[in-house]
Amino acid sequence: MTHDTHPTDQTPTTPAPASHHPTDQPPTSPAPLTTAPAVPAPSTTPPVATTPHPPATPPVVTALPVERSRGCPFSPPAELAELRAQQPLTRMRYPDGHLGWLATGYAAVRAITAHPGFSSRYELTHIPFPGTEGMELPPAAVGDLTGIDPPEHTRYRRLLMGKFTVRRMRLLASRARQIAADRLDAMERGGPVVDLVEAYARPIPALMICELLGVPEEHRADFQLRATAISDHAIPPEGQSAALTELNAHVRDLVTAKRAHPTDDLLSDLTSTDLTDEELAGVGGFLLAAGLDTTVHTITMGTYALLNHPEQAAALRDDPTLTDGAVEELLRYLSVAHTGARTALEDVEVAGQLVRAGETVTLAVGAANRDPERFPDPDTLDLRRKATGHLAFGHGIHQCLGQQLAREELRAALPALFRRFPDLRLAVPPEEIPPRRDMTLHGVERLPVTWGPTTP
User: How far apart, in whole angstroms, are the C-alpha atoms of residue 167 and residue 169?
Assistant: First the structure.
């Protein structure tokens, strides 16, 4: 499950921990001069009038880099690293002509997401992705925590945070392990080859959201079908829209049922608050949107990355004590929700640059999580790395509400997969694995895998 992600993390119409680092410290003052400057000798030559040099104008990026290098499916666009090496905050021209900023440095992204002078409101945001000329984002729908600011955001978040209890997370962790085991049994019965996305990565978070919201067993298959359809690129836009309408109707019916007969789930707990039925349905839809695709693609891309680093996969399979750290490292390394945005409500100085009120800053989360000033040798996948403090779940007031649930799903899914199938491997050459056709979440459309003896 991702942070209260911004629509640039998901889609333009739909709707995510931190650590201390030396770059967060104020700069040290320069050492005082120890010698007096030399006094120039008098001159009989009359002075020449000169015009002082104007301050250097920061270079302007003309488009957000979005293309990943061939052969590097897990790395952010190379241009982002080049920009980050020059300066962590760069001027950028947006498709609609807006002159805003691009943040690529870890400290800069973290500072912006923590600063109350930046807004997450959709309607204030300029969209950075190519091909969005003329597009404007509407205000956030009711229940969508991503696109609102305090005090509305504070009210929703306070109500929800109290529902992600230790007891509930423990129960959900147990269910995640059981769901993963069930899916692995089904994969083994069906035999190779399977598409890991549909056979494993998607069912786990979809069923876990059903657990979280208390969807009755008899409705889960239909609920999962509709949830899958809204992000299935093989389905035309009108089909996706119809699936979303039907899913929203399912959530509204679920709210009505929970009002009448509460059960042991988050949605039932929320019926005891002052949230209206419309707000409850909105929150349910928000949790679904925030927790499905991001986790699907983290499981998928995590598997793909481990297959690409067999020594790391073997370490995870053979050493259960690596699991927690491995999950953090994969979250950092992959940064599936790779791009966010904030808009300044006031003039704010960040990384030595003055961001003016009204200017949008695009947050290159993937580049920030590869910042060598925060994570040494950042382009290496190292499951033994201490990767805490990554920004995959965001930072500040919009940090992911369901991050512990997402972690439990990943802890359940990835080690179990490689223990059940220690010889798991790609079933097709890497160049035949289709990347996602949009730019909002990093992932692949399908991941064909196989196991067992190799064919001579």
Answer: 6
Q: Is 223 helix (H, G, I), strand (E, B) or coil?
A: helix
The encoded tokens of residue 239 equal 């089909």
What is the rounded distance in angstroms from the CA atom of residue 235 to the CA atom of residue 388? Answer: 38
- Cα–Cα distance, 18 to 393 (Å, whole number): 9
pLDDT per residue over 407-423, tens digit each?
A: 999 999 999 999 999 99
**Long-range interactions of 186-194: CB distance < 8 A, separation 24+:** 187/420, 187/421, 188/420, 192/427, 192/449, 192/450, 192/451, 192/452, 193/427, 193/448, 193/449, 193/450, 194/448, 194/449, 194/450
In percent, the amount of the chain with pLDDT more than 70 equals 87
Of 311, 294, 307, 306, the closest CA to residue 330 belongs to 306
- In angstroms, the CA 281 to CA 267 distance is 9
pLDDT single digits (tens) 337-356: 999 999 999 999 999 999 99
Report how far residue 141's alpha carbon sits from residue 148's, in angstroms, rounded to the nearest whole number: 9
Q: What is the mean pLDDT of residues 64-83?
A: 91
Instruction: Say yes or no to pLDDT of 255 above 90.
Output: yes
**344: part of which helix (H) or strand (E)?**
strand 339-344
On whether the CB atoms of residues 417 and 19 are closer than 8 A, the answer is no
Tell me how far apart the alpha carbons of residues 100 and 114 are, in angstroms, rounded to a whole number: 19
Task: List CB contacts of 247: < 8 A, sequence separation 6 or more.
Answer: 223, 226, 227, 230, 285, 288
In 225-255, which positions are buried (b, 16+ CB within 10 angstroms) versus exposed (e)? ebbbbbbbeeeeeeeeeebbeebbebbbebb
Which residues lie across from 425 on neighbouring strands? 450
